[in-house]
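Ticket #4471: structure output looks truncated?

Reporter: J.K.
Steps to reproduce: submitted the chain below (165 residues) through the standard prediction queue, then opened the result file.
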Amino acid sequence: MKSLTKAFILLFMILLAGFTLVNIDTKKESVPVLNNSKNAAINEEDSVGNTSMVSYINKGKMKISWYGPRFHGKKTANGEVYNQASFTAAHKNYRFGTLLKITNPETNLSVVVRINDRGPFTKGREVDVSKAAADELGLLGTGVAKMRVDEVVLKGVNFPVIKLN
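Returned output as attached by the reporter:
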């Protein structure tokens, strides 16, 4: 019985050591820090360049619009229920689960949204964001604006199939 207890303790210690994350680089954080003034806005200094865990692929400027109340509670193209208070978006071609960082060039506010739907289906528009994302970007009043879009790439993750909301 003693050897079985020792074996379980040793196994537990190995598992615990295997899941321990150590940050060797103490000069700066490896994950972007959220801005204190708005929970969904990303600090400008953290979004410049790449971090050790996250990198950004510039997709250029796109015409961004938003959708909300009429679709709230209905199923999206990937099967989940649309929630206008979550940070999601629709795009015609990006894979479901793709993370996009959208930046308003006038205010320099950014949000990260997850693609979970198809659209927009209005000519000239390229991305539909949820009402919550539009509110953080200052898009509710104008409805449509050209904004900078970056694809968020999580290093070591082939295709992030994670539910963020």
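Triage note (M.O.): checked the attachment and the full token line is present. The domain at 44-154 is CATH 2.40.40.10 (Barwin-like endoglucanases).
Status: closed, working as intended.
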